Amino acid sequence: MTSSVPPLNRIRVGSAPDSWGVWFPDDPGQVPWRRFLDEVAEAGYEWIELGPYGYLPTDPAQLGEETAKRGLKVSAGTVFTGLHHGPSVWEKTWEHVSDIAALTRAMGADHLVVIPSFWRDDKTGEVLEDRTLTPAQWRDLTEQTERLGREVRDRYGLRIVVHPHADTHVDTEENVNRFLDATDPELVSLCLDTGHYAYCGGDSVKLIETYGERIGYLHLKQVDPAILAEVVAQEVPFGPAVGRGVMCEPPAGVPALEPVLAAARGLDVDLFAIVEQDMYPCPPDKPFPIAARTRRFLRSCGV
């Protein structure tokens, strides 16, 4: 008897500079980019994201040479946006997006991860704006995100995948559902980050089962439930929460990744599943052993 369950090999596993404690283009406390590339390949990953623009070389020829000689390929670039501010921020947004999109396309990738702007500063905790959007701001967010999706597709051949993120306006199940319901599936897909979604109280398996056709990309990570309970109770901003270790090495946290991968497998589509364990700041010798163990764990899950 043959199984009708689609194979897991349609899921391509990678990692990202974030898993090496890299949050900024240039920070003397971060692992140098050559070391990141060496270690991510040694840990058993074939795919990487670009990380903060300027951390890895921005010259496509140089980056192509450096990745190829390590057997690495690029799955996506990442941009930060504040599109709920409306058309007035479009030009500034596009200036930021276009350079990253061009490099992403030149590296042969098909996806651009879009992260909404934070409502409070992730380092200082300063409240920058109201954590709840007005109806007009929701309309601007969805309309401008569709515009971004159209422009990125038409100019660079990339598909945007919007990343629900802690301390942004696209975070909880309610807000993610509202965002998806208000955007065009042809223009806007979702980057489901299992850790951020759990951080904000969401159920990744339920989201995949409910909005499967909108899932265009995965970030795999887990949260430590005990630390999460503390940071929620104390209203700790995301940056300091990461410093406390709220994002933990799998399989020690939640959500369990086996059911998430099984639900993703059930979609029967090609998906990237990029490991992204937020660890900023962290000692330079800390990431590699975690990355190697995580890769072994994911192999035990069938990917």
TrEMBL record:
Pfam families xrefs: AP_endonuc_2
Gene3D superfamilies (alphabetical): Divalent-metal-dependent TIM barrel enzymes
Name recorded for this polypeptide: TIM barrel protein
Source species of the chain: Streptomyces liangshanensis
SUPFAM superfamilies xrefs: Xylose isomerase-like
Residue ranges of domain Xylose isomerase-like TIM barrel in the record: 37-299
